[in-house]
Amino acid sequence: MTTPENTAYSDSSFWEKLKGFALKAGREVIEKALYLYYAAQRPETPAWAKTVIYGALAYFISPLDAIPDAIPLAGFSDDLGALAAAVAMVSLYITADVKAQAKQKLQDWFGKEVS
Which residues does UniProt assign to the signal peptide (predicted)? Predict the structure, then answer.
């Protein structure tokens, strides 16, 4: 996958962070991250939208957050805000297929049917 050269995003660091923090971060944070990830994989998603997506995902996987992820309850609030803003900006590219892929991954990780 190609990413804009000025971001600190990589597939491996995304999956590593997601797997390491899925239960702690909670379903809402992970769902938004997966929506963005799968939307970025689509060839139909334009470059400007992928730039927004990779920027949000780079912030999510960055060890340097405005609010450190280790802080209980509040640690992922800045990540959620960044991901939610990116989802809002690129919502046209978060298709039913993207949502289905995210739903399947959430079900795999959280072990129950998610809506």
Answer: none
Question: Whose structure tokens read 């730039």?
Answer: 51
Phi, psi of 75 (to 5 degrees): -60, -30
Please give the DSSP secondary-structure letter assigned to residue 108: H
pTM tops 0.90, yes or no: no
Q: Could you give the CA distance from residue 60 to residue 74 in angstroms, rounded to a whole number?
A: 14
pLDDT tens readout for residues 10-44 = 777 777 766 666 656 667 788 899 999 999 999 99
Q: How far is it, in rounded angstroms, from Cα 17 to Cα 104?
A: 18
Q: How many CB atoms lie within 10 A of CB 101?
A: 17
